[in-house]
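Lab channel / #folding
Pinned by the channel admin:
"Please post every new chain as: sequence first, then the structure tokens as a reply. Keep commentary short and put observations after the output so the thread stays searchable."

First post following the new format, from NK:
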Amino acid sequence: MGDIEVIHEEFSKISTEDLWRQLLVPTDNPITARRNRKELGIVIGLAILGGLLSKVPALFGFGDMDAHSQLYLRNASIFVFFPVAIYLIWKRSLPVLRSLLVLSIFPSSALLVNVYPSYEPHHTGFLLSLHLPMVLLFVLLYFFGGPAIKREGQPLYATGWRNPNTRLNFVRFVGESFIYAILIGMGGMVLILLTAGTFDLIKIDAFPFITAWIAPLGFFGLFVVAAYLVLQKKNLIESIAPVLARIFTPLFLLVLISLIIAFLVTPNQAYENRNMLIWFDVILALVLALTLYSMSSKDFTSTNTSAKSQITFWDFLSFGLIISAVIVDAIALSGISMRLSAYGFSANRTAALGENLILLVNLLLLCVGYVRYFLQKQTFQEIVVMQMRFLSVYGIWATCVVVVFPLLFGFR
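Reply from TO:
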């Protein structure tokens, strides 16, 4: 081995940054390096495009974001996801004509949300703003996985964007992009504050320019940059998924248990307190998202181990989380039913009822799947296939809320 001090001295000469670069970042040949530079340029251009799209309402006299906040809220997901869609089309080298046809959903959505009026109390407008991102995420799923093409020996649902494993990878992609976007956004906020403070020291008010241009360009171009980083560092970043799942699964389980205890202590609050029901729904949506993310972090493809040995403590913890979520969902549904009988149907109450019913069915299917998995009557892959197919139900429901609810409830 040689002298320990000599070895230590040689290692001390190595730059830690260079070592990590050599270990984790493959050396590019000239062609790959040129493509990477081109890709970076495209991403920067698309990020700017997202910011410029947010200035389109100003061309029609709606430049004040504060005065026309509902308008910007309706269109925000279009501004954010349209550049990502173009990036995925280029990244995946998808067929142009078919891609343009699917991409037309974005201008069609923009036309729909801006033609639909919104009257007091603006419930359908808010629901539209909340559900449109879910619809557009399915459009991104198509571009992420590519078109489903009939292949010999394979059913149509096993190819392209319909493939369950592709959908699971998309869940991981969206989750990690969201995390990256938060981190970049926090850094951007610090940079904006430092910039504003610096100009303030020299008696120049840069805040109007920052709020009018820098902030929109940064915010609406954020997600495409995050998506680029996730795809560029895919092999490195995937290790984050199991870590995050293991951190937040027990924490969310504690939150759900505390909600159940709170209901047992004050049972009438679930029926009388509207905000508590909303909080229940937010928690349930986050639990489902965490369950999907946990699925994406589990290695269930290994053939070297038995089904029993693949069952871990974290599977039981996820099962406990799902059981707790079923109880919370049942409490929420009972509260919604009481409010419906007392106040009748409204856009918000109908949407809450539909979403909680869908969530309950989904969670019960997951419960059955996990029990069968623990009894070794099915594989984890079968749970994944069921869940990934069930995602289409959420897409259909979100489309219904966006398109039908405003008409059904008089745009109120």
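NK: The two ends are 78 Å apart (CA to CA).
TO: also worth noting, Confidence is low (pLDDT under 50) at residues 11-24.
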